[in-house]
Amino acid sequence: MNLSHHAYCLIGGDAMREELLTLLKKDHEITPTANADFFDRKYQNFTIDDAREVKSRAETRPTRAGGKKIFILMTNEITVEAQNALLKLLEEPNEQSHFFLIIPSAHLLLPTVRS
Fold this sequence. Notes:
The chain is built from 4 helices and 4 strands, in the order βαβαβαβα.
């Protein structure tokens, strides 16, 4: 797995999340354990308040020099307001941040977020 992009949309569920965690550890030596730069959350419905929390955390630099901030956001639903709030962050993240949005179907996303 290559972290050449800053935002990824993965279609799946718990199995996809586990595969992602394995790849991050194996290919990039990134683990969620005792890692302040690792944000891994599961949501039933991702809301505007959740988007604000992610944006706030993404504004800080990694704790280690040359480190990466990893955001795994797994949700069954995502509001239009939350997607709009995340749009700029997904389009223009800082260099150290990588976002993985795990959803059950791509049809949940606005076309602007999908692109």
